[in-house]
């Protein structure tokens, strides 16, 4: 169906509306979740080169993993200026910034 392709959409999320984070014990601090997301995007970007990934970061460790299939495009959504950094061309992303949300 996808011909071996994947489109991934990511975002920082918010506890503002349904309190999903509060109810499940997830991290509430946006800055910590932002660190997780940034490190995750770095790992995924490295993995989609097709080469093995070796990453030893603040939050995650990856040794020799490969990520397949490679994505067609990435989507990083949000309302802050940081969303454009997360969707940087080096990560193959597209920033989608909703207005008035």
UniProtKB/TrEMBL annotation:
A Pfam short name: Bac_luciferase
Keywords from the UniProt entry: Flavoprotein, FMN, Monooxygenase, Oxidoreductase
Keyword flag Oxidoreductase: yes
Top-level division of the source organism's lineage: Bacteria
Domain Luciferase-like as annotated: residue spans: 1-74
Entry-linked InterPro entries: Luciferase-like_dom, Luciferase-like_sf, SsuD_RutA_monooxygenase
The keyword Metal-binding appears for this protein: no
Cross-referenced PANTHER family: ALKANESULFONATE MONOOXYGENASE, ALKANESULFONATE MONOOXYGENASE-RELATED
Protein name as catalogued: Alkanesulfonate monooxygenase SsuD/methylene tetrahydromethanopterin reductase-like flavin-dependent oxidoreductase (Luciferase family)
């Amino acid at each position: 169906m996808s011909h071996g392709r994947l489109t991934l959409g990511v975002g920082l999320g918010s506890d503002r509306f349904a309190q999903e984070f509060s109810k499940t014990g997830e991290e509430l601090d946006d800055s910590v979740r932002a660190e997780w997301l940034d490190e995750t995007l770095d790992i995924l970007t490295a993995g989609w080169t097709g080469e093995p990934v070796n990453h030893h970061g603040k939050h995650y460790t990856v040794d020799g993993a490969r990520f397949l299939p490679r994505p067609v495009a990435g989507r990083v959504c949000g309302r802050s200026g940081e969303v454009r950094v997360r969707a940087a061309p080096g990560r193959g992303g597209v920033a989608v910034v909703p207005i008035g949300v």
